[in-house]
From TrEMBL:
Gene3D superfamilies: Nucleoside Triphosphate Pyrophosphohydrolase. It holds the Pfam family NUDIX. It comes from Actinacidiphila acidipaludis. This is NUDIX domain-containing protein. Its cofactor is Mg(2+).
Length: 160
């Protein structure tokens, strides 16, 4: 997995300190209602397309860029599905990170799905009722993308 240069620069100073980072996760549909997935090179597992915005980059811009970089598909962002803070991740090199994901529903508008960088082993379109093995969070994000509901976020009680 390519580590963005700005994170390498931070790591050079912060070491393996827990970093709180933005992430974008995309549920991309084609005109047949299929979902775009990639089989990640780092884990070998199928996943939604995702990435880290560059400094100053808007989440929708990062989403469009990541989809194209990883899959060769051109897409547009339709709406925000959810905002979600994930559990911390411990990487094999000892680095720790926690991501706040902005999950976006996207629509493919061109390009052919293919492995387009070194972050994916495979890329493909899947009917919603024929998805490969995916974790419950990814399946929940796809289910949310199929509904016409307000943006989801973890609720918080008002302070006194």
């Amino acid at each position: 997995m390519a580590i963005p240069q700005f994170i390498q620069d931070i790591r050079a100073k912060a070491g393996d300190t827990l970093l709180f980072l933005p992430g974008v996760v995309m549920v991309v549909f084609d005109d047949r209602g299929r979902v775009l997935l990639n089989r990640r090179a780092d884990s070998g597992k199928w996943a939604l397309i995702s990435g880290i915005p560059d400094p100053g980059e808007q989440p929708a811009e990062a989403a469009v860029r990541e989809i194209h970089e990883e899959t060769g598909v051109s897409a547009v962002v339709e709406r925000v599905l959810s905002v979600f803070t994930n559990e911390p991740v411990l990487y094999p090199n000892g680095d720790r990170a926690q991501y706040i994901d902005i999950v976006l529903r996207c629509r493919a508008v061109g390009g052919d799905a293919r492995v387009n960088d070194d972050e994916s082993l495979d890329v493909g379109w899947f009917a919603v009722d024929e998805l490969p093995e995916l974790g419950p969070i990814a399946r929940g994000r796809i289910a949310l993308a199929l509904r016409d509901e307000p943006t989801w976020f973890a609720p918080a009680d008002a302070l006194p």
